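STRUCTURE:
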């Protein structure tokens, strides 16, 4: 009798193990199928400014070039087309000591220009502070219509740690905008127009200047017409 119980218990355990393996295989297959169906980011442009590429951009204001560095004066902007899907990523390499270094106020906007609807943008601010030495913030602003006028509304704003930024990434993914520095998340928030495709990217200074030695963009493919 005991031998029979042992055999029956062993058979049940093997059955349970087989069932668990089948469930795990099914879950893995579903995850693989889901991942395979997702669009992938593809290179759109990459510029290290070793040559004068200002002709590739839409430019306003004072924008100067020297080998390896592009400089934007106060209130200047550069724009480049992306024409991709609803997932895009831009990366900036700041020149010299980085963005936010120094004793002057600085403001930078990284704009996602969306197809068929209003834009959103990331705003970086840094100011000298008598007590702290520096105070800064990173914010996501969503442009919408209010009383017949276009108004930029702050979705979320977070403080920036003291110190200059060296490399910054801003990503728009179906309405979720995430800002990272060297893989550390500085800000993450949603805007309303999550299904809109990204038509272009624009960098614009407010106060202060900007020097970059790299600008790259990747995007998911545009939806077929």
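SEQUENCE:
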């Amino acid at each position: 009798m005991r031998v029979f119980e042992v055999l029956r218990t062993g058979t049940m355990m093997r059955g349970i193990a087989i069932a668990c393996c089948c469930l795990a295989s099914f879950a893995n297959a579903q995850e693989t199928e889901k991942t395979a169906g997702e669009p992938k980011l593809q290179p759109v442009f990459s510029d290290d400014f070793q040559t004068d590429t200002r002709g590739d951009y839409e430019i306003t204001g004072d924008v100067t070039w020297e080998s390896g560095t592009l400089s934007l004066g106060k209130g200047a902007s550069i724009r480049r087309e992306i024409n991709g899907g609803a997932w895009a990523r831009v990366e900036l390499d700041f020149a010299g000591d980085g963005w936010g270094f120094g004793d002057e106020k600085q403001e930078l906007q990284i704009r996602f220009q969306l197809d068929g609807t209003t834009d959103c943008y990331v705003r970086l601010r840094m100011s000298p502070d008598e007590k702290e030495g520096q105070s800064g913030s990173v914010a996501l602003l969503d442009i919408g219509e209010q009383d017949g006028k276009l108004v930029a509304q702050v979705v979320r704003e977070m403080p920036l740690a003291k110190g200059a930024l060296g490399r910054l990434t801003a990503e728009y993914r179906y309405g979720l905008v995430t800002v990272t520095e060297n893989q550390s998340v500085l800000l993450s928030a949603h805007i309303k127009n999550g299904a809109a495709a990204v038509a272009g990217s624009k960098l614009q200074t407010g106060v202060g200047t900007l020097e970059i030695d790299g600008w790259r963009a990747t995007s998911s493919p545009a939806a077929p017409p």
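REMARK: The chain has a mean pLDDT of 85.
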